Amino acid sequence: MTPTLVRHQSPAASAPPAQACARARDWAEIQERMLVPLYEAVYERLEVGPATRLLGLGCGSGLALLMAASHGARVTGVDTRPERLALARERLLPEGVWGRVGERDGARVLEGGPQAAGPAGARYNLVTSFEPVGCAAGDADGLVPALEAGVGLAERGAVVVLAGWGPPERCATSGVLRVATRLTDAPRWRPSRRDDLEDLASRAGLRPDGSGRVACPFGYADQDSAVRGLLSTGLFDAAARATDQVQVEKELAEALHPHLRRDGTVWMPNVFRYLIARTP
């Protein structure tokens, strides 16, 4: 049976602008794969499989969903960015760009918040939020309501996974992210703190139940790919509005220079954290 793909969208919604679509494609083709070691570590630790009913918050272009589905999990993803969701649908369709997954029953991709993702059957027993927190000022504030809503759709004692940046001294990309602060009066980047994920879990009414660290190096074919990939995160949007796109790209290229290798590739070792929590 082919996956059920659901579009949750208001009639007034319009197609995303071409620039947003190009940025989403850069995310899916360049940047998102940097987090694959994180996804793999979490799924292996939790033994994700056919008994898993997963709700992915901020599922983006769907790579984490696809990986969970490859383990047999029943997956639902929600996101408010239609341009990324369009790519998630490509990946999860039977003839999608990432191969046939039509034999996996029940995959859903919905536009909107967790409220759009009422369980199709039993409640969720795994909720994931893989978009890393801990490098942008206030990045956890908007996540708390989404987590609370997601928890409301999960069974009692369900697992909730949060992800974040590791210590700045172990994340080479931290220095590059500072460009987002230098170019705007509204700082976007901030150093990650040791208890960022625990604080977020507490605010969402969750009980921590373990954590881990995963090496997620950022590697790019060349400097241009690195600039495009980093811009696709959205962390530099405020800087581009405060100055201009050309200036941001120039500053990024300069910040990447210490990480440029002789063969032209860019390599930045990073460590990410994940927190396993439980619903009340």
UniProtKB/TrEMBL annotation:
<protein>
    <recommendedName>
        <fullName>Methyltransferase domain-containing protein</fullName>
    </recommendedName>
</protein>
<dbReference type="InterPro" id="IPR041698">
    <property type="entry name" value="Methyltransf_25"/>
</dbReference>
<dbReference type="Pfam" id="PF13649">
    <property type="entry name" value="Methyltransf_25"/>
</dbReference>
<feature type="domain" description="Methyltransferase">
    <location>
        <begin position="55"/>
        <end position="97"/>
    </location>
</feature>
<dbReference type="InterPro" id="IPR029063">
    <property type="entry name" value="SAM-dependent_MTases_sf"/>
</dbReference>
